[in-house]
Amino acid sequence: MTTIKQKRTKQWVDKLWPESTYPVSYGDALSKLTKDELTYIRTKLRIPGLSSLNKQALIEALVRLVPERIEEETIRYWDRERWTVIQKILNGQGRWAKPLLTVEQYDYFRYRGIAFPSTVDKTRVVLIPEELMAWFRAKGANLYNKGIAVRNTEWVRLSAGLLYYYGTMTVEQLAERVSALTGAAVDVPEFSGVLREASEYYAQIRVDAGDRVSHSRVADPEKVVGEQEFRAELEFYPLTKSQILKAAEPDYIEKNQYYIDLVRFLRAIYEISREEADCLVEECAEAAMNGLSQGEVMRILSDSLELPDEATMKVLTDKLVLLMNSTRQWVLKGYSPDELSALRQRASVAEESAKKADVISMETRRKIGRNDPCPCGSGKKFKKCCSG
Questions:
Q1: Which SUPFAM superfamilies match (predicted)?
Q2: Higher pLDDT, residue 27 or 142
């Protein structure tokens, strides 16, 4: 018997991979979409004046107008990965068999009217319509600018990595950071376009309201912004370029020793797989990154696991606290609580040392440096005599 869930899954698959012919005309490819989906293509490519058309008239207009808009509105912002996808389809004469993309990435190409996931002879493929194939071939030499694609790739990866550690930033803040990392000026409007397009292709980047870009894991950007502004005197944690690029990888999570210890501990007291334990600890780490309290993070574990006896519970709590205190938080501008505590302690020691050095000689009315002769007349340096 087919269950409701199985029926829904089949409906979803049929919608994502509709039956098609190969080669496919542009009109036939677009006819598989709903009127709302066609309208979405028109909106993404900023094609005006088509809102009153019925579905067939809209398809005919898009067949004519999409090639005029895709270079300006989307292709100019592509990185190397998206160009590689298109090149695979072009190399297959308009057909890419056994494609491997996420659902969001299939939708990215479909809802720009460029490439269409389809089923041909019971095989899943991605197709570029004949008319667009001819367009790509005619414009190919001028369309792909390797330098721009390389630049866009670096912009996207650095932005994703920075957002992993800092949570949320304005486009201008990100552009400034990326410029410093690359040593090259960043055109902010162009950069904004690259991020806008990347946000619909890559899971890590999310464009929020108010010219703000966030990592997709950030639950409450406004809370993060408020906490960061409360710490206005605190500079963002200094990251290396290699750290940033590593964090740009899909599904990246920073796994320190305390993270690994908690995974091992959960596996030791519960009959769960490494993947299950890792998934739970990742949820805890993500909650800590969002600035949640210890109680809130503990509830994540209690929702999935039966909490142990009191003695084991204490060990679990201690390990969870170690994880949380060592996890970089967006509200702390990329610092972990442990790092921020150490930073403040060093600043306090330096301030106290400076205060000790600010001793005024009663005779000269001048401040006495730590290497100056001690005013007591001992002949020793001040730091080795009366400073302490």
A1: Sec-C motif
A2: 27
Whether the Cβ atoms of residue 207 and residue 188 lie closer than 8 Å to each other: no
Distance CA 197, CA 213 (A): 12
Residue type, 80: R
Q: Is residue 124 within 8 Å of residue 115, measured between CB atoms?
A: no
Q: Which of 323, 322, 249 is nearest to 280 (CA)?
A: 323
User: DSSP string of 164-221?
Assistant: HHH-EEEHHHHHHHHHHHHTS---HHHHHHHHHHHHTT-TTEEEETTTEEEETT-S-H
- What token pair was written down for 133? 């194939």
> Rounded to whole angstroms, how far apart are CA atoms 168 and 159?
10
Nearest to 42 by CA among 73, 16, 83, 86: 73
Give me the percent of the chain exceeding a pLDDT of 70.
Answer: 86
CB distance 296 to 282 below 8 Å: no
* Residue 44, CA atoms < 13 Å, CB-side half-sphere: 23
The verdict on pTM exceeding 0.70 is: yes
Tokens coding 39: 């309208």
Torsional class of 110: left (φ above 0), alpha (ψ -120 to 50), beta (otherwise)? alpha
In this predicted model, what pLDDT tens digit does every residue of 25-65 receive, in sequence order? 999 999 999 999 999 999 999 999 999 999 999 999 999 99
The sign one gets for the Cα dihedral 282, 228, 243, 200 is positive
CB 49 within 8 A of CB 117: no
Between the two ends of the chain, the Cα-to-Cα distance in Å is: 85
CATH 1.10.10.10 segments of the chain: 146-247
CA distance 13 to 350: 63
Q: Which CATH number fits domain 146-247: 1.10.540.10, 1.10.10.10, 3.50.90.10, 3.30.750.80?
A: 1.10.10.10
Estimate the crossing angle of helix 337-357 against helix 310-326, to 10 degrees: 60
Integer CA distances (angstroms), 244 to 155, 158, 219, 329, in order: 12, 6, 21, 15
Q: Which two structure tokens, joined as six digits, stand for 244? A: 């940033």
303 burial type by CB count under 10 A (0-12 exposed, 13-18 middle, 19+ buried): exposed
At 156, list the tokens.
């996207």
